[in-house]
Amino acid sequence: xxxxxxxxxxxxxxxxxxxxxxxxxxxxxxxxxxxxxxxxxxxxxxxxxxxxxxxxxxxxxxxxxxxxxxxxxxxxxxxxxxxxxxxxxxxxxxxxxxxxxxxxxxxxxxxxxxxxxxxxxxxxxxxxxxxxxxxxxxxxxxxxxxxxxxxxxxxxxxxxxxxxxxxxxxxxxxxxxxxxxxxxxxxxxxxxxxxxxxxxxxxxxxxxxxxxxxxxxxxxxxxxxxxxx
Length: 229
Prior knowledge:
Layout: H1 2-9, H2 17-24, E1 28-33, E2 36-41, E3 44-49, H3 52-61, E4 68-71, H4 76-83, E5 87-95, E6 110-113, H5 119-125, H6 132-140, E7 145-149, E8 152-159, E9 165-170, H7 179-193, E10 199-203, H8 207-215, E11 219-228
Parallel strand pairs: 3-4
Antiparallel strand pairs: 1-2, 2-3, 4-11, 5-10, 5-11, 6-7, 7-8, 8-9
């Protein structure tokens, strides 16, 4: 059944990158037909439906839920009333579909993989509130890279549990030097070598990030992904 679903999802590859990644990395299939799909990946329920009534019925059947990622969301009232969850992120999905990365050399910065020795630096400089346990789990999963100038760390990037590139941060005095781009390109090259899906999500009003990722060669999906937490 998994292969059948993957074949179906790949017919609309860009819009379904998150679902494909989840399914390829152990997500549980909670519901599937050609009207829609619901997966559970770790603690995340992921839904994409053309038939709103089926989606509503499935949401009502879920007992405990702390996080949802929904394509083209129309279910705020049900979700908010049942679990008191709110819309935290509303984003376009961006996928990198090429098999190579054109690296733009940045002579001032060195990018390399980093681990727990930089936990405090990441925690103190990441601009989005985050649970320490989750951050440690991601660091231990070896998904973080750091940017160094003269052996001093000035930025970092990594991957979230659902596979998106994220955690991108450059400390203030080193911004506008192409460091964020260098971090992402390093990760992209690494993921291509590992034959992994390369995708991320950009909030619908973050126009500078949209321009950056389109410059890097990403393509934008039509679907809008809403995260409830």
